[in-house]
Each structure stands twice: as C-alpha cells, then as structure tokens.
Design goal:
single chain, mainly alpha, DNA polymerase, domain 1, two-stranded parallel ribbon, 7 helices, 83% helix
C-alpha cells in the first residue's frame, strides 16, 4: 500500500514538474529569465540563437549553440525538469507571429494612407478648373506653333546658305574656266606669232643664202676651170 501511495505521489510530482517546465523553443525572454541558472543575458542569447538558426533539437543542442549555457546548467535542467525543448510553438512561428503583430499598426497605417489617397483622387479630378485647362491647352498650342516657326526658319536659313554656297562655287568655276581659256588663247596667239616671225625671217634671209650659195658655186667652177687650163 505504501509503495502504491509513493508511486502516486511520485507520478504527481513528475507531472507537476512537467507542467512547470519551460519550453526553450517557445518561451519569451521573461519566461526564460525565470528558469534557474538563466538571467536576462542568457535569456536574450537563447532567443537570438533560435531566431537565427531555428529551434533547438535537445538540451545538449542548447549547450552547444548558446554561449554561457554549460554542462552544469544542462544537468540541472535534466534533473529537475525546469526546462525542456519539447513541443509548443516553434520559435520561427512564434517570433514571426510576434513580429507580424508588432508591424500590424504600421501596415494598417500604410493601408489607410493608400485608401485615403485613392478616396481623394476623384476629388482632385473634380477640382480641375476648366479655365486652367483651357489656358494650359492654349499655352501648349502656342509652344507648338513657336517650335514649328523656329524649325521652318532654321530650314529656310539652311536652304539659303546652301544655295549661296552653290552659287559661289558655280561662279568660281566659271571664273576659272574663263581664265583658263584666256591663258590658252594667249598662248596659241603667241605660238602663232612666233611661227609667223620665224617664217618671215627665213624668207628675208633666203637671198643672202642664195647669193652665198652662188658665190660658192662660182668659186668652185673657177677653180675647176683654172685646173683644166693648167693641164693644157
């Protein structure tokens, strides 16, 4: 009977310890701080580690991953059951849920601002002034007209400059052709005059040449005659 009573007492003690155990994979810093051997610094280190690298697989995994949690602390937790890495919310889900809850006001404020902008858009359209629109259209038309005028003037100026250049080039070519013809004509006239003068001089010198030739022929004949007379 006493053994049964002791067994029942032991069972309820174990159950009480199990219910009192803190799940290292779901507890927040405040709950972790309540565990024997864990202070604010270690509690924060446990939370940071599980956020960064995911849930712990065992108490030994906690010892390996969290700085400041040593073998003695792990042995105490295993003995008194004050901490475990059992079920409960995984840190990723719990932390994500906490972050989502924390960011909810910001998201709501952003959504409200967007809704207000969308709601005010029709009002902005309604506030458009017909006079302002007419003025803007008039200014746009005037600008387009001015731009076209400027483009036309530029095109006309470019054409005028091109025509002037072409005329100057044509005039220069005509002047050069005229100068070349004049030079050629003058050279031809000079050559003709030189030929005429040469012919005139040749005609003028012909009697002298003939007289010289006759004298030479006479001298040759006289010499011949004298030679023949001497033989007789």
């Amino acid at each position: 009977m006493n053994k049964i009573i002791l067994a029942i007492i032991g069972f309820f003690m174990a159950m009480g310890m199990a219910f009192a155990a803190v799940d290292l994979n779901s507890a927040d810093e405040k709950e972790l701080d309540s565990i024997k051997g864990v202070g604010p610094v270690k509690a924060k280190a446990i939370v940071d580690e599980r956020k960064k690298n995911g849930p712990f697989k065992s108490l030994d995994d906690v010892e390996a991953r969290v700085k400041g949690i040593g073998p003695a602390t792990i042995a105490t937790w295993k003995k008194d059951g004050s901490a475990n890495v059992g079920g409960g919310s995984t840190p990723a889900k719990a932390d994500a849920k906490a972050d989502a809850k924390k960011d909810a006001p910001k998201a709501d404020a952003k959504a409200d601002a967007k809704a207000d902008m969308k709601k005010d858009a029709p009002k902005a359209d309604e506030k458009k002034d017909p006079k302002a629109e007419a003025k803007a259209k008039k200014e746009a038309d005037a600008k387009a007209k001015a731009d076209k005028k400027a483009a036309d003037e530029k095109a006309a100026a470019d054409k005028k400059a091109a025509d002037k250049k072409a005329a100057e080039e044509k005039k220069a070519a005509a002047a050069k052709a005229k100068a070349d013809k004049k030079a050629a004509d003058e050279k031809a006239a000079a050559d003709k005059k030189a030929a005429k003068d040469a012919k005139k001089d040749a005609k003028k010198d012909a009697p002298k040449a003939d007289a010289k030739a006759d004298a030479k022929a006479d001298a040759k004949a006289d010499t011949k005659a004298d030679a023949k007379a001497d033989k007789k």
